[in-house]
């Protein structure tokens, strides 16, 4: 019995980080609800706002700051989006980036 409990504990330990991995599909949903109106469907930029496909993988800090604090015509998302929402958005954007 003790072995089984240890086995389960170990499995939970190894699985938890995998399950916590943000899901690009969730990011796509959050994007469609909050961002697509200005940044375009499927990240296809209509021309007026920033082209999210050009965000580099090194620009996670810039992404967090701009999205949370707002920039230019873009409103701040602090209070609307949680850190986990930003994780999911980032994974979605990176999965569709042009670089
Ligand atoms: C009301 C329209 C609007 C919405 C909605 C919007 N944005 Fe923006 N976004 C803009 C505009 C305009 C800019 C360009 C800002 C500037 O440089 O003056 C921008 C810029 C950005 C940038 C680049 C900022 C930088 O560092 O240069 C990122 C990243 C971004 N938006 C992400 C998002 C995400 C993620 C969402 C959804 C949560 C979102 N935006 C929703 C209009 C919008």
The whole-angstrom Rg is 17 Å
Shape: elongated
CATH topology: Cytochrome Bc1 Complex, Chain D, domain 2
Classify the oligomer: single chain
Low-confidence stretches: none
Q: How many domains make up the 3D coordinates?
A: 1
Give the biggest sheet.
none
* CATH architecture identity: Orthogonal Bundle
Report the count of strand segments: 0
Can you write the helix and strand succession as a string?
Answer: HHHHH
How many helices does DSSP assign? 5
The CATH homologous superfamily corresponds to: Cytochrome c-like domain
Structural class: mainly alpha
Approximate strand percentage? under 5%
The CA-CA distance between the termini, in Å, is: 52 Å
CATH class: Mainly Alpha
Helix content: 55-70%
Bound heterogens, unique: heme C
Overall mean pLDDT: 87
Topology summary:
Blueprint: H1 2-20, H2 24-34, H3 36-39, H4 60-69, H5 83-95
Helix pairs in contact: 2-5
In short:
Helix content is 58%, strand content 0%. The chain contains five helices and no strands.
What descriptors fit this protein?
mainly alpha, Cytochrome Bc1 Complex, Chain D, domain 2, 5 helices, 0% strand, binds heme C
């Amino acid at each position: 019995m003790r072995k089984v409990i240890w086995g389960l504990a170990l499995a939970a330990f190894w699985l938890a980080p995998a399950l916590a991995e943000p899901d690009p599909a969730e990011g796509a949903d959050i994007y469609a609800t909050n961002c697509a109106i200005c940044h375009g469907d499927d990240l296809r930029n209509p021309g007026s706002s920033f082209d999210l496909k050009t965000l580099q993988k090194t620009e996670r800090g810039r992404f967090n700051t701009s999205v949370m604090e707002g920039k230019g015509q873009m409103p701040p998302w602090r209070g609307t989006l949680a850190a986990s929402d930003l994780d999911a958005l980032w994974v979605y954007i990176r999965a569709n980036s042009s670089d």
